[in-house]
Specification:
This protein is an alpha+beta fold and about 500 residues long. The protein folds into two domains: about 230 residues, Glutamine Phosphoribosylpyrophosphate, subunit 1, domain 1 (4-Layer Sandwich); about 190 residues, 3-Layer(aba) Sandwich (Rossmann fold). Helix content is about 35%, strand content about 20%. The strands form five sheets. A seven-stranded antiparallel β-sheet has the order 3-2-4-1-10-9-11, covered by helices on one side. It has a six-stranded antiparallel β-sheet with strand order 5-6-7-8-12-13. The protein has a four-stranded parallel β-sheet with strand order 16-19-20-21, with helices on both faces. β9 and β10 form a beta hairpin. α12 packs parallel to α14. It starts with 6 loop residues before the first helix and ends with a helix.
C-alpha cells in the first residue's frame, strides 16, 4: 500500500484527539497463600511476578490467627512491600494480595485492594481481577436499600452482597453473592478460617492453583507460582470455587454449567510469555501467531523487527516461517512501564518516547517488517513507525499478530470506546495511511484460533472470549444497556424541548 500525502495530516488529527473511556476497566493480578509462615512476604514476591498486570496500586491483607493486617499503596510492589520490616508489619500464615490498574478517574487509594470488611461472621478480605458488567445496577440497588459505599470499585459490591446474605456459612454467603453478579472475574478471598478462590462461570479471567511445600497457593498466572517456588497443580476451572482450609482443598461447582470461554487477549498481550494459561504456553501461542501471520500476509523484506517486548515471540515465529532474518531493530528501556496500561493518554504518549529507541545499524537502508502483538489506538504504532523511518529505513511495513480490534472490552481490560479504536470504522487502506506505513496487515480470526490449536472459530459456540475482534460478547452487558437506554431517553427529552 502506497502512502498518500494526506496521511500524515490525518494521523496528527486522529492521534491528537485524545482517548476518553466509558466506565471502570480493570486489569489486575491476584495472589493468595494459606498456612505458610511469613505469608505476606510470599505474597509480595508473587505480586512482583504479576506487576505487569497492574502498575498503579498494590495491597496485601494477612491474618495472624487473631486479626487482620491490611496495607494498600499507590505505586509498585517493590516500593511498598520490599522492606525487611514486612513480616513485623504484616504477620500471619495466610495472606492475599493484589496489583491494580485503574482507568482515569479511578486512581484513588480508596479503590485499592484487597478490600476488607468486618462482617457478622468475622473479617473478610477480597482481591478481584476482572469487571462486573452489572456493577452499576447492583450498586444502585444496594444504595437505594441503604448501603454506604467507600469506593467506586465493583469489588466493594461483592462485599456488600456477602454482608447482606442471610446464609449462615461464609462459603454459602460467597455463593449467594456471586450468583447475583455478571461479567468476568477471578477473585481470592481470605477469612479467619479459609482461603477462597473463584473463577467466573465462563472462565474469562484466569486463576491457577499451586502448591508450596504442601501449602495451597492461588495466582493469576503460573509465573507467580514459579517466582515463589511453588508447583503448578491445575487451573481453577470455569465456574469453580476452591475452598482451602487447614488440611484440605475443597472444590465446589455452585453455578450453572456453562461452556468455557477464556479471554484470548491473555495470550495476545496481557499474560507474560513464561506463563501457561489454560494449559497453553503463552510463548508458544505467540510464536504460532507470528508463523500464521507470515503465511497470511508475508511480503519480501530485508529484516523482521519486533516492537518490544510483547511483539518478540510473534516476530520470532514470523521470521522462522518466512526465512527472513530476525533482528532487534528497536531497543526497549526496561525501566519504563508498559504503554497500554498507563492511566492517561499523555502518560502513554510520553511512555512511547521514553521506552523505545532505534537500532540504526539494523534499520538504515532496510525494508523493515515491524511485528506488534496488537494495534489498539495506533498512538504507539505511528510513533514507532516514524522513529524507524527517521533511523533510515527504506520501507516500513507493519503487521499485527492479532485481528483488528473493533469493539471495546467490559470484562477487565482497559480499552477505549469504539470512536478511539483504530480499526473500528476504517478500511485497511485508511489505517495504513494513518499509520504512515508502506503496508499493513492483521492476523485473521481463524488464524488466531489456529495458533491456539483450536481449529476454525465456531460461530455458534466460540471457544474463547473474542468480542474485541468479533463483537460477539459472551454475556449480556446490563450496565451498558442501562447507560445507552438513559442516553436515548435524554436525547428524546432534549429533542422534545427543541421542538417545543
Amino acid at each position: 500500500m502506497t502512502l498518500v500525502a494526506a496521511g500524515a495530516d490525518r494521523a496528527t488529527s486522529f492521534f491528537d484527539s485524545g482517548s476518553e473511556r466509558d466506565g471502570l476497566r480493570l486489569e489486575c493480578g491476584v495472589f493468595g497463600i494459606f498456612g505458610q509462615p511469613d505469608a505476606a512476604s510470599a505474597v509480595a514476591l508473587g505480586l512482583h511476578a504479576l506487576q505487569h498486570r497492574g502498575q498503579e496500586a498494590c495491597g496485601i491483607a494477612a491474618f495472624d490467627g487473631q486479626g487482620f493486617h491490611t496495607e494498600r499503596h499507590l505505586g509498585h510492589v517493590a516500593e511498598a512491600f520490599s522492606g525487611p520490616d514486612l513480616p513485623a508489619r504484616m504477620p500471619g500464615s495466610s495472606a492475599i494480595g493484589h496489583t491494580r490498574y485503574s482507568t482515569a478517574g479511578g486512581s484513588f487509594l480508596r479503590n485499592g485492594q484487597p478490600m476488607f470488611a468486618d462482617l457478622e461472621a468475622g473479617g473478610v478480605a477480597i482481591a478481584h481481577n476482572g469487571n462486573l458488567t452489572n456493577f452499576l445496577f447492583l450498586r444502585e440497588k444496594l444504595v437505594s436499600d441503604g448501603a454506604i459505599f467507600q469506593s467506586t470499585s465493583d469489588s466493594e459490591v461483592i462485599l456488600h452482597l456477602i454482608a447482606r446474605s442471610r446464609k449462615r456459612r461464609v462459603v454459602d454467603r460467597f455463593i449467594d453473592a456471586l450468583s447475583q453478579v455478571e461479567g468476568g472475574y477471578a477473585l481470592v478471598a481470605l477469612t479467619n478460617k479459609k482461603l477462597i478462590g473463584v473463577r467466573d462461570p465462563l472462565g474469562i479471567r484466569p486463576l491457577v492453583l499451586g502448591d508450596l511445600n504442601g501449602k495451597p497457593v492461588l495466582a493469576s498466572e503460573t509465573r507467580a507460582l514459579d517466582m515463589v517456588g511453588a508447583k503448578f497443580v491445575r487451573d481453577v476451572d470455569h465456574g469453580e470455587m476452591v475452598v482451602i482450609s487447614h488440611g484440605k482443598v475443597e472444590s465446589l461447582r455452585p453455578f450453572p454449567a456453562a461452556r468455557a470461554r477464556p479471554c484470548v487477549f491473555e495470550y495476545v498481550y496481557f499474560a507474560m510469555p513464561d506463563s501457561v494459561v489454560n494449559g497453553r504456553s503463552v510463548y508458544e501461542v505467540r510464536k504460532r501467531l507470528g508463523r500464521r501471520l507470515a503465511e497470511e500476509s508475508g511480503i519480501p523484506v530485508d529484516v523482521v523487527v519486533p516492537v518490544p517486548d510483547s511483539g518478540v515471540p510473534a516476530a520470532l515465529g514470523y521470521a522462522q516461517a518466512s526465512g527472513i532474518p530476525f533482528e532487534m531493530g528497536i531497543i526497549r528501556n526496561h525501566f519504563v512501564g508498559r504503554t497500554f496500561i498507563q492511566p492517561t493518554q499523555d502518560a502513554r504518549e510520553l511512555g512511547v518516547r521514553m521506552k523505545l529507541s532505534p537500532n540504526r545499524a539494523v534499520l538504515a537502508g532496510k525494508r523493515v517488517m515491524l511485528i506488534d502483538d496488537s494495534i489498539v489506538r495506533g498512538t504507539n504504532s505511528v510513533r514507532v513507525v516514524r522513529m524507524v523511518r527517521e533511523a533510515g529505513a527504506a520501507e516500513v511495513h507493519l503487521r499485527s499478530a492479532s485481528p483488528p480490534i473493533k469493539w471495546p472490552d467490559f470484562y477487565g481490560i482497559d480499552m477505549p470506546d469504539r470512536d478511539h479504536l483504530l480499526a473500528a470504522n476504517r478500511s485497511l487502506e485508511e489505517m495504513a495511511k494513518l499509520l504512515e506505513v508502506d503496508s499493513l496487515g492483521f492476523l485473521s480470526v481463524d488464524g488466531l484460533y489456529w495458533a491456539m490449536n483450536a481449529g476454525p472459530r465456531n460461530p455458534t459456540h466460540p471457544q474463547f472470549t473474542d468480542h474485541y475482534f468479533t463483537g460477539d460478547y459472551p454475556t449480556r452487558l446490563l450496565d451498558r444497556e442501562m447507560a445507552l437506554g438513559r442516553k436515548e431517553i435524554t436525547e428524546r427529552q432534549l429533542s422534545f424541548l427543541v421542538d417545543a
